[in-house]
Amino acid sequence: MSLPTAPAPSLEVSGLAYAYPDGHQALFGVDLTVARGERVAVLGPNGAGKTTLVLHLNGILDAGAGTVRVAGLPVEKRHLAEIRRRVGIVFQDPDDQLFMPTVREDVAFGPAAAGLRGAELEERVMTALKQVGMEAYATRPPHHLSFGQRRRVAVATVLAMEPEILVLDEPSSNLDPASRRELADILRSLDVTVLMVTHDLPYALELCPRAVILSDGVIAADDRTQDLLCDDELMREHRLELPFGFDPRSVVVPLT
Amino acid sequence: MGAGHAHKLYRHGHSPVHDLPPHCKLVAVLCFVVVVVSTPREAVWAFALYAALLAGVAATARIPAGFLLKRLVIEVPFVAFALLMPFVVPGEQTELLGVPVSVPGLWGAWNVLAKGTLGVGASVLLASTTELRSLLLGLQRLRLPPLLVQIASFMIRYGDVITDELRRMSIARRSRGFEARGVRHWGVLAKTMGALFIRSYERGERVHLAMVSRGYTGSMPVIDEVTASRTQWAYASVLPVLALAVCLLGWTV
Amino acid sequence: MHVPDGFINAPVSAVAGVVAAGAVAVSLRGARRELDERTAPLAGLVAAFVFAVQMLNFPVAAGTSGHLLGGALAAILVGPYTGVLCIAVVLLMQGILFADGGLTALGVNISVMGVVTVVVAYGLFRGLTSVLPRTRRSTTAAAFVAALVSVPAAAVAFTLLYAIGGTTDVPLGKVLTAMVGVHVLIGIGEAAITALTVGAVLAVRPDLVHGSRGLAAPLKLRVDGELVDAPAAAPAPAAPRSTRKVWAAGLVAALLLAGFVSFYASADPDGLEKVAADQGIDEKVEEHGAADSPLADYGVKDVENARISGGLAGVIGVGVTVVVGSGVFWAVRRRRTREASGTTTGTRSD
């Protein structure tokens, strides 16, 4: 995988370390660069600091040491509004993400907060909903949707902000196989940089050509997803296990 | 008190009442109730007319009587309270079915029952012809502090989510053979509530993160504005204006 | 007790409305200070919690059940300002959506159930926690007393409003007796559940209990500084003393309240009728072949004599206070011992 050289990478994390106020340190110097248009999976056991890393990407947590840059723009207080528009985070529980009374208003929340109004706002909302195939549900309250539908709307809420990079926290959790596949189709169809934090190794293999392993607060490995999954010793070392009967060697990874 | 909260409130439909802007309806209902409350209780016929007015609104909104009556059970605790009055209020005594009751007490009971029932009826009609979401927009339009509207909106959005969690916890308790039967089990129920509070609060924190991630800085962006035309206001004012006429008659007759 | 339309006359309702609006305005400001931009989601979720909790019925005795009002609980868990906001929003929504409580009586309801309950509960809670040793146990006990007093306090406030603007001329003594009497019983339930809930939250996330923020800080510091079991060991010697003190305080409070009821009951012979009617209402109604009364939820059933019924409320009140109070301490002590032996690293990362 050769990185394109011309534009600034979508995401550039260097030497990122962070300790929570109570002293518990979660990140110990993370270095990660994601080029524009790439789809990268972040794998790692529970408590490896995955969520902490995600919360740094749009400045919800302030880096203790090191820097985060999004499309060349450093994550700092004065750029926060722009950073939050460029980094779209889809959280694990869609119920946390969909806090407005109707799907339409929820998708409109981000762009409206950025100052969009009227017809332009409406168009942005419908485009985002069409991208995830949920345009028919615009007027429905989120809690009347199925879990898979809610996750798709959650993705739309973020797409409506036309982000530079889409960050997904456990996108496949709690989805039935059909919803899982539908979401994969949607993610593949999008023309954005994707960073996917997951335990779901087959899903990572299916969607992300490249993967990194975050373990004990550092990037322990960074390679082609298939190569990582085939490295039994590495996998064991970082408490990553493939589902029963799944052999990454036998999978033909779709070319993207 | 606890009764009736699980009812499905809104009855979907397209009627002139459904289509009125929410803030017009809120104002109309409030004015109606104020008028009803200020009617002298001796004007019994006035309350019959109010009830007829409400029935008229219900018919226009195509809300079946059964639906309306079922929702009225919410006031049962106060019916009981009202039933007490004839027995405890001092004053002139009279006989009713062979039982001594007080006349002022009877009037008091009538007063509470009639006004309370009409108030409940009006609110029920409002809730069953107006979607939750538009009610909130209406409140916003009526200049309720935005923060209060936001809190209410979050409460409504997450009411179901939290009630679901409560239900799941209760199922989990019962699956392990626990059945709350008395004071002895309050500890377990309180633990449930403690856990529920923590879950609710933590969810609040996560929701806040999700909001901040999408550019929230303390105030909700205005996405929808409800507006009302002069005609709609006029239409909504029919109920309180008619009621006011009845009320004035009640004071003069 | 959601007051319906027509119960309190228009001028008093209007004044109560102004009071409620003022209190909500002050709370909006205060909550912003407490929670800044997190106010909306957090207060909204806590309001949803209070709303859900009011639906959770807890069994009182054979066949009857009650539910929490939540004012004291909200005040102690999230602070007085946010507490008032949450209760006000819950009442507003109940009034508009469920017709539970009249629209014109909204001000009365918010003033009585929101403001009075929260202010009394929080004031008492802070007062007690500043006097008592700073342990979880005394926090729980303070929550118990605060909730116990807050409910009859609301009843007194309601009676006051009724005295000024009641639409029917029921003798005040009777209203007060009945309201306070019944609400002491409700208060005991409220107190037990509130205290147990606060205790349960304290055990898992002490940082979330607004009323005891000062309590959480030193605990955490010690965990970082010395051996992990230090915080559990330190307050232990102080515990028996604090238990006894709080136990006594609870008993005194209960006796006072019960005495209050009995005083009115005996001072005004007619007043007995009210208590009797209130608490023996199903008996009376059954005599005439009418339906069962929902007020029986909180009443003492099948009592033939008014005097006995009146006295019974007081006795039951004190008795239940003692039993439940001891139960609370027993439960807390058990948890503490378990904690001391079990969990060691109790700090949370988020």
Automatic annotation (TrEMBL), chain A:
The topology of this chain with respect to the membrane is: Peripheral membrane protein
Origin superkingdom: Bacteria
Coarse class of the protein's main subcellular location: membrane
Gene3D superfamilies on file: P-loop containing nucleotide triphosphate hydrolases
Return the Pfam families for the record.
ABC_tran
Q: Which residues form the ABC transporter domain?
A: 11-241
An example molecular function term from Gene Ontology annotations: ATP binding
Query: What are the alphabetically sorted keywords of the record?
Result: ATP-binding, Cell membrane, Membrane, Nucleotide-binding, Translocase, Transport
| UniProt-annotated location(s) | Cell membrane
The job of this chain, per UniProt, is described as: Probably part of an ABC transporter complex. Responsible for energy coupling to the transport system. Part of an ABC transporter complex. Responsible for energy coupling to the transport system.
* Similarity section: Belongs to the ABC transporter superfamily.
| Protein name (record) | ABC transporter ATP-binding protein
Automatic annotation (TrEMBL), chain B:
Tell me the compartments it is located in.
Cell membrane
Q: Which UniProt keywords apply?
A: Cell membrane, Membrane, Transmembrane, Transmembrane helix
Transmembrane helix as UniProt keyword: yes
Please list every transmembrane segment annotated in the UniProt record, as residue ranges.
43-60, 72-89, 109-127, 233-251
Question: Sorted alphabetically, which CDD domains does this protein's record hold?
Answer: EcfT
Q: Where is the signal peptide?
A: none
Q: State what protein this is by name.
A: Cobalt/nickel transport system permease protein
Q: Which PANTHER family match?
A: SLL0384 PROTEIN (PTHR34857)
Membrane topology per the entry is: Multi-pass membrane protein
Origin superkingdom: Bacteria
Q: Which InterPro entries match?
A: ABC/ECF_trnsptr_transmembrane, ECF_CbiQ, ECF_transporter_component
- Keyword Transmembrane listed? The answer is yes
Automatic annotation (TrEMBL), chain C:
Domain named PDGLE is located at: 244-334
Which InterPro entries does the protein's record reference? CbiM/NikMN, PDGLE_dom
Taxonomy, superkingdom? Bacteria
UniProt KW keywords:
Cell membrane, Membrane, Transmembrane, Transmembrane helix, Transport
> What broad class describes the main subcellular location of this protein?
membrane
Q: Where found in the cell?
A: Cell membrane
Does Kinase show up as a keyword for this record? no
Q: Which Pfam families match?
A: CbiM (PF01891), PDGLE (PF13190)
- What does the record say about its membrane topology? Multi-pass membrane protein
State which residue ranges cross the membrane: 7-28, 40-60, 72-97, 103-125, 141-164, 184-204, 246-265, 308-332
Q: What is this protein called?
A: Cobalt/nickel transport system permease protein
Species source reads: Streptomyces clavifer
